[in-house]
Design brief:
This protein is an alpha/beta fold. It is built from 7 helices and 14 strands. The chain is 28% helix and 24% strand. It has a 6-stranded parallel sheet with strand order 5-2-1-6-7-8, sandwiched between helices. A 6-stranded mixed sheet has the order 10-9-11-14-13-12. A hairpin with a 2-residue loop joins strand 3 and strand 4. The longest helix has 16 residues. The structure holds trans-cyclohexane-1,4-dicarboxylic acid (L14).
C-alpha cells in the first residue's frame, strides 16, 4: 500500500511531544525555515497538557494527545518516545496525516523509509504514511560517509561516539548542569536521567544492552547506516559513549575503502557535500568541537587524515547538534520533501 492523499500546500501540522526538547526545537525549526503552516496543533501527555507554547510569536495551548487528536491534521511530527509512536502513529495515518517519527519504533520496518535528506531523499516518495527519522548518531555519520562512499565503496567503519546529554532529553541536560554544580560544591547528588554520574565522567552505555554485549544505540548505528545508504555490505563497529556535553554529538570515524581515496579527493568531496562544513586546519588548531557548535544546522568535519595502518584508510572527526540535525531539523527537512 502506498500513500495517495496529496499534501496541501499549507498543511495543518501536529507536533507530538510539543513540550519536550526535540518538540520545542521542531516548532522553532518550522518557524525559522518558514515552513508553510495553516495551523499548528501542539500535543503532549496529560502531564504537560494545558501548558502554553509559542509558535511564530503566538501562544498555543498544548492539548492532551488522544486517538482523536489527528482529525484534520495533514502532517504529524512525533517525538514523544517509541511507545507513544507505536500507540498513536496508526491513529494519525488513519486520520489522513503523514507521520514523521523521531523514535526508533518503525525505523527498521521495511515498509517505512528511513531518511537523511542529504543521503537518500528519494526514499521519502515510497512512504505509506510513516517516515522514520534516524538515530542522531547515525544521521551525522551518514552525512559524512555518503560523499566518501560515492568516491570509492566503503568496506568497513569503526566509530566511537562522544554523545551529549540532550539525547536523553531536557531532564538529562538539567541533570548535567545541576550535578556539575553539586560536584563543585562537594555534594553528592543521585543520578536519575543516567545510570551513573555524568558530571566529570563518561558512560560507555547508551540505551539498553543487547545479547551480544553491544548496546542498542550501537546496534542502531549499524543497521540504520546500512539501510539509509543502501549498502548492506558495509561493516560497522560502533562504541557509543555519553560525555558531559550539552547538545552536540562528536564521533571519531575510521573508514576503510575498497580502493584508494586520496586525502585531497576526500577533502574536496566532503567540502562540496550538502549539509556539511569542513572545519579542518591543523595550522590554526581548527576542528569542530561539540561545546562550541550548539544551535548550528550543519554537520562539521575536521581532523581528516590518512590511516596508514590499513590499505585504504581515512580517519575523521564529525560533530553536529543532536537536537537540530540529529532530530528536529532532519525531521523538518523530511517534511519539506512532502510539500507539493
Ligand atoms: O534512537 O539517549 O533516537 O542519547 C536517541 C538518543 C535513543 C537514545 C534514538 C540517547 C535515541 C538516545
Amino acid at each position: 500500500m502506498s500513500w495517495n492523499k496529496p499534501m496541501p500546500a499549507e498543511p495543518v501540522v501536529a507536533v507530538v511531544g510539543a513540550t519536550g526538547a526535540v518538540g520545542t526545537e521542531m516548532m522553532l525549526v518550522l518557524e525559522q525555515r518558514g515552513f508553510p503552516i495553516k495551523r499548528l496543533v501542539a500535543l503532549s501527555s496529560a502531564r504537560s497538557a494545558g501548558k502554553t507554547v509559542f509558535f511564530n510569536g503566538a501562544p498555543i495551548r498544548v492539548e492532551e494527545l488522544t486517538a482523536e487528536s489527528f482529525e484534520g491534521v495533514d502532517l504529524a511530527l512525533f517525538s514523544a518516545g517509541g511507545s507513544v509512536s507505536e500507540a498513536m502513529a496508526g491513529h494519525a495515518t488513519a486520520a489522513g496525516a503523514v507521520v514523521v517519527d523521531n523514535s526508533s519504533a518503525f525505523r527498521m520496518d521495511p515498509k517505512v523509509p528511513l531518511v537523511v535528506p542529504e543521503v537518500n531523499p528519494e526514499d521519502v516518495d515510497a512512504h505509506s504514511g510513516i517516515i522514520a527519522n534516524p538515530n542522531c548518531s547515525t544521521i551525522q555519520m551518514v552525512v559524512a560517509l555518503k560523499p566518501l562512499h560515492d568516491l570509492a565503496p566503503i568496506k568497513r567503519v569503526v566509530v566511537s561516539t562522544y554523545q551529549a546529554a540532550s539525547g536523553a532529553g531536557q531532564a538529562a541536560m538539567d541533570e548535567l548542569y545541576s550535578q556539575t554544580r553539586d560536584f563543585l560544591n562537594d555534594e553528592v547528588s543521585e543520578p536519575s536521567a543516567f545510570a551513573h554520574r555524568i558530571a566529570f565522567n563518561c558512560i560507555p552505555q547508551i540505551d539498553v544492552f543487547m545479547e551480544d554485549g553491544s548496546t542498542k544505540e550501537e546496534w542502531k548505528m549499524v543497521v540504520e547506516t546500512k539501510k539509509i545508504m543502501h549498502a548492506p555490505d558495509i561493516e560497522i563497529a560502533a562504541t557509543c559513549v555519553r560525555v558531559p556535553v550539552l547538545r552536540c554529538h562528536a564521533e571519531s570515524v575510521n573508514v576503510e575503502f575498497d580502493s584508494t581515496v586520496s586525502l585531497e579527493n576526500a577533502s574536496a568531496a566532503l567540502a562540496a557535500a550538502p549539509g556539511l562544513t569542513m572545519m579542518d586546519d591543523p595550522s590554526q588548531q581548527l576542528y569542530p568541537m561539540p561545546g562550541l557548535l550548539e544551535g548550528t544546522d550543519e554537520t562539521y568535519v575536521g581532523r581528516l587524515r590518512v590511516d596508514s595502518t590499513v590499505e585504504h584508510g581515512l580517519n575523521l572527526w564529525v560533530v553536529a547538534d543532536q537536537i537540530r540535525k540529529g532530530a528536529a531539523l532532519n525531521a523538518v527537512q523530511i517534511a519539506e520533501r512532502l510539500l507539493p
